[in-house]
Amino acid sequence: MGNEKRQIIDLSQVKAACQSCSLQELCLPYGIGPEDLAALDQIVKRKRPLSRGAHVYRTGDPFRSVYAVRSGAVKTYAVTDEGYEHVTGFHLPGELLGLDAIIRGEHTCSARALDTTSLCEIPFDQLESLAGQIRGLQRQLLRLMSQEIQQDEELLLLLGKKTAEERLATFLLSLSKRYSNLGYSAMEFNLSMSRNDIANYLGLAVETVSRLFTRFQDQGLLEVQNRYIRLHEPRALRLLAGGQHGSDDAARA
Amino acid sequence: MGNEKRQIIDLSQVKAACQSCSLQELCLPYGIGPEDLAALDQIVKRKRPLSRGAHVYRTGDPFRSVYAVRSGAVKTYAVTDEGYEHVTGFHLPGELLGLDAIIRGEHTCSARALDTTSLCEIPFDQLESLAGQIRGLQRQLLRLMSQEIQQDEELLLLLGKKTAEERLATFLLSLSKRYSNLGYSAMEFNLSMSRNDIANYLGLAVETVSRLFTRFQDQGLLEVQNRYIRLHEPRALRLLAGGQHGSDDAARA
DNA sequence: CGCTGCTTTGAACAACTTCAACTTCTGTGG
DNA sequence: CCACAGAAGTTGAAGTTGTTCAAAGCAGCG
Question: Do B150 and A103 touch (CB under 8 A)?
């Protein structure tokens, strides 16, 4: 299913190639030489922006491509049998989407834009065969998948062991760090997701999240105004997030 | 990329090779032709059995290999700063271990045998380069990683949204299914992990798990005697596991 | 046997949820 | 541009689920 029918394309499109993309270091191109990058560029389809609420894919859609976020934000969520939503992740620029679908051949969760969002679509069969040719690409693909596993494991820890307070603190710090990696401020940012999404993601009730925001603000840890967040005491937040319990059922020989 | 160099190989080795391994279908060799399988066999090191409690690797160890379980069982767990243990998974025969370490270059969790356990060690750099030559191997490696992401996401749902009852039911059914895939009985099996490990893994207190086992038995769903489990009503368990809540904050357009 | 560690059971307690009411925000149409 | 309706967010009070603490029952092993 090679598609070779792109002809006249405006120059702005060309400009937006991987080679000049500011997310290179985070995304698939990382560690790939210039000439190979051109080959990758050939298979990447830069899509027109999705507007807020639009779906990238839905549960049950056949798996054909993975997607990289270029700008905006995407949430992924599973829908249970009862029509009940579970948010599995938020994806900022440079992050890949859809890697969980490889094994089943169809998407097991849905992905939708939280904001106006631009994506790159990378047809998976082409990516796979290119990865077979470009050593660095294979490597980076494996690395990114490994990273996702790693992050899921951290989330598992969060959901399995952390208190509500620790969860929200961890979440905010994670966002802060990711924004900072993207070159934005680590101290202030706008949440692209609703309280509901946050609560759902963190395994909490909306009310709890709301109360925690209020509490954090009262304690002078941060300032919150609707979706705007400004961290005042990231250090203190980090302490909260760390989780100094008093737990004792530690490792055993 | 054809590799055509298989010659005389000692027979005892061949016996224990991937080619004759009963786990072929679940493990890395899946979907690989016989001649390529021989190449894979060359890099797989079949290790002598680990005794119960022995470590496969520990947090902080440099990442050099991934491991496949051949027999026995392994648990992976992270240790937090406070020396506090968090069980991230149980691994039965045919399952791969250590894929989360690729990105960091060192292990971020520890793995230890729950029983006498045999493993195959696969040096990752060799696996990676072989995957670049054998299309099917690359494919299976990606599939297995995707599967792990997928499974972690299910676990996320479990920890984020399910009640204690649902968690234990889900856990038991998962074990049942995995044993059944291995050719063992789906209806009765012996747990290789302690109540503590189960509780830890499921994000519950040991006491809760213990009470649930008692309750399930009282309800006639199963029979439990120390680590022996016999499922009587897998159907009913499945209902419990499914999670018919009454939740209402469903998806939104 | 008699530890020692694992498991079970009971009762009090805490964290978070649920329910309910109210406020604030957003965006649409007059 | 304002008013209004619906959505999103906040706050309080009551209710649950699961935790924590405490103690006793078992199982395996030197």
Answer: yes
Chain A residues touching residue B157 (CB < 8 angstroms):
78, 80, 86, 88
The alpha carbon of residue B12 is apart from the nearest alpha carbon of chain A, in Å, by 33
Task: Estimate the share of chain A in helix, then strand, then coil, as percent rounded to the nearest 5.
Answer: 40, 20, 40
Nearest chain A residue to B152 by CA distance is A152
- Residue linked to tokens 């299910």: B154
User: B177-189 pLDDT, tens per residue?
Assistant: 999 999 999 999 9
- From A88, A144, A149, residue closest to B99, measured CB to CB: A149
- Rounded to an integer, what distance in angstroms lies between the CA atom of residue A22 and that of residue A16? 10
Chain C footprint positions (protein CB, under 7 Å) = 5-11, 15-20, 25-26
Closest residue of chain A to B130, computed from CA coordinates: A132
Question: Does residue A5 register a pLDDT over 70?
Answer: no
Q: What is the pLDDT of residue B20?
A: 86
CA of B226 to C1' of C2 (A): 22
* pLDDT given for residue A243 in this prediction: 62
Q: Band the pLDDT of B248: cuts 50, 70, 90.
A: very low
Q: CB of B223 under 7 A from strand D?
A: no
Residue B16: pLDDT band with limits 50, 70, 90: low
φ, ψ (nearest 5 deg) of residue B224: -135, 135
**Residues on chain B touching A128 (C-beta within 8 angstroms):** 138-139, 142
Q: What is the mean pLDDT of residues B75-90?
A: 90
Q: How far apart are CA A133 and CA A42, in angstroms?
A: 14
* Model confidence at A16: pLDDT above 60: no
Residue with smallest Cα–C1' gap to C19: A207
Interatomic CA distance for residues B195 and B112, integer angstroms:
16
Q: Is there a contact between A138 and B146 if contact means CB atoms under 8 Å apart?
A: no
| Higher pLDDT, residue A86 or A84 | A86
- Residue A107 token pair: 């998407």
Report CB contact under 8 Å: A145, B147: no
The mean-pLDDT minimum among A15-24, A119-128, B156-165 falls in A15-24
- What residues have CB less than 8 Å from A107, skipping those under 6 apart? A57, A58, A59, A60, A61, A62, A63, A98, A101
Provide the token pair at A131.
């990865």
Q: Which of A142, A141, A123 is nearest to A47 (CA)?
A: A123
Strand partners, A121: A45, A67
For residue A233, pLDDT beyond 50: yes
Identify the pLDDT of residue A227. Answer: 95
Euclidean distance between the first and final Cα of chain A, in Å?
55
**CA gap A221, A234 in Å, rounded:** 7
Round and report the angstrom distance from CA (A159) to C1' (C11).
28
Say what the pLDDT of residue B2 is. Answer: 45
| CA of B93, C1' of D17: distance in angstroms | 36
